[in-house]
Design brief:
By secondary structure, the chain is an all-beta fold. The chain contains no helices and 13 strands. The chain has 2 domains: 82 residues, no CATH class; 78 residues, no CATH class.
Length: 165
Amino acid sequence: MEYCLGDPDGSATLWTAGADTDFDGDGVFDAVGRDVDDDGFGDVLLDLDADDVADHAVLDLDGDGAPEAYFTDDGTGTWTVAAERGGSALRWLGLDGVEHPASSAPVDLDGDGSPERLVDSDGNGLADRAFGGSQAWVDTDLDGRWDVRLSDGNGDGAADSAEYL
């Protein structure tokens, strides 16, 4: 499997390695084990589209052996995972449909001055859930567009209403 990792100086290095890790537990090596974010904990690179090029990175952020962060190659063929990402940098779509690049800056999806927490449930690098204050947005069909806005009017942590966008 080939993979490309960014270096601190902005350059990148292309590597080739055979699978050496059984990620899905079926007894077959299907991933390359690498400490992608240089935190001392084991991470893996996966080739889920079977083109012999890594397209997913799964990171163990706390050393417990369980994955906490999933990233996909953004299509450039180069992984640029820095330690400060901490699993939070995702591409996201504004409510106007404009895509924003991954950034460590706070995301204010609805423009109310308070940042939202983004979640990527399918691991493709694009946020499909956003949580902020008393509202949440969901991309229910994973097409990259927000479909539903949930509101919690009484603050009990459960949605009181859903508005289809």
